[in-house]
UniProtKB/TrEMBL annotation:
Pfam families in the record: DUF4096
InterPro entries linked: IS402-like_dom (IPR025161), Transposase_6_like (IPR052909)
Every Insertion element IS402-like domain range: 1-41
Protein name (database record): Mobile element protein
Length: 63
């Protein structure tokens, strides 16, 4: 899911190694409702290296 938002691609263009795009698409609302996404971000934010929180020109997309 994060790959899709970072790359700015439609759901149908997800690489095959992520599995069926429709299943990934259905999983997002479930994970949001059950708090999985929040736990993932809290875990990443607790990393003292903070390399996951860095933003640079390779991540930011101008539309």
């Amino acid at each position: 899911m994060l790959y899709r938002y970072r790359a700015g691609i439609p759901w149908r263009d997800l690489p095959a190694h992520f599995g069926d795009w429709k299943n990934v698409h259905r999983r997002l609302p479930r994970w949001c409702e059950t708090g999985v996404i929040e736990r993932i971000f809290r875990y990443l934010a607790a990393d003292h290296d903070n390399k996951y929180m860095m933003i640079d020109s390779t991540i930011v997309r101008a539309h």
